[in-house]
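Lab meeting, item 3. Inverse folding demo.
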């Protein structure tokens, strides 16, 4: 257990790897899964959903955030992302758009765990991945 929350990192990583199996990625063949923990202790999962009109595809992180919001969650407490293939040993870090979408519901110290399907892991904070970010408070 890496913090005081009863949901462990490995539970979140397992949920993200499981979500990868539901990816709809016939164009890139690059499956990604995300699992996030909200302020109610609930886990929300998502996978990437591609489209024949390529730019309309959505990322796993975006899909998990939509699930959280639709379930009434408002805060991302921790998020795990799993993606890639055995062939490539570069971890699948969230794209720029998803970093900003995570930013909307997370704090600078929110942990983002990146896992490869072969068991490699790295932990970042949101501030590591999106320093000096723009958020809701900028609009006040
Ligand atoms: O963090 C990431 C990076 C990429 N993708 C998806 C988008 C596209 O469907 C595929 C290849 O870029 O992976 C995600 O879902 N999350
Ligand atoms: Zn993305």
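The presenter then showed the designed sequence:
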């Amino acid at each position: 257990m890496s913090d005081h929350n009863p949901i462990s990192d490995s539970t979140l990583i397992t949920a993200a790897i499981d979500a990868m199996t539901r990816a709809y990625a016939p164009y890139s063949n690059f499956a990604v899964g995300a699992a996030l923990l909200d302020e109610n202790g609930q886990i929300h999962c998502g996978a990437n959903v591609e489209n024949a009109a390529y730019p309309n595809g959505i990322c796993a992180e975006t899909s998990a955030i939509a699930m959280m919001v639709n379930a009434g969650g408002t805060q991302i407490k921790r998020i795990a992302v799993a993606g890639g293939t055995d062939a490539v040993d570069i971890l699948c870090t969230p794209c720029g758009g998803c970093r900003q979408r995570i930013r909307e519901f997370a704090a600078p110290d929110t942990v983002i765990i990146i896992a490869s399907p072969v068991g490699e892991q790295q932990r970042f904070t949101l501030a590591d991945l999106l320093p000096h970010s723009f958020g809701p408070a900028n609009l006040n």
